Amino acid sequence: MISKKKIWAVQLQEFPTSERMSVQDVYKWCDEPHDKALCRWRQIALALQWPHAVFYRIPNTKYMGFRFGLKGHQYMSLYSN
Fold first, then answer.
1. What confidence tens digit (pLDDT) does each residue in 19-34 have?
2. Rounded distance, CA 56 to CA 76, Å?
3. What is the spatial distance between Cα 50 and Cα 31, in angstroms, rounded to a whole number?
4. Dist. CA 8–CA 53, nearest whole Å
5. CA 21 to CA 40: how far, in whole Å?
6. Predicted pLDDT of residue 35
């Protein structure tokens, strides 16, 4: 079984400056006034398919997303413009 702790360790190996986001942080991001709000909610629905998804953002960039596995490519960027 994959733990969120292990997934987060992989995220930090790949992107060391990452900050973990809580689910509440992600919901606030989705609720921000934005012309792509529906797109944001759809992306979050995709993340919910993975029981151990961990959300992240990279400070001082527009990059954020979620990681769902231990392999380097097992992450998904979120629409953050």
1. 999 989 988 888 887 7
2. 10
3. 22
4. 9
5. 15
6. 75
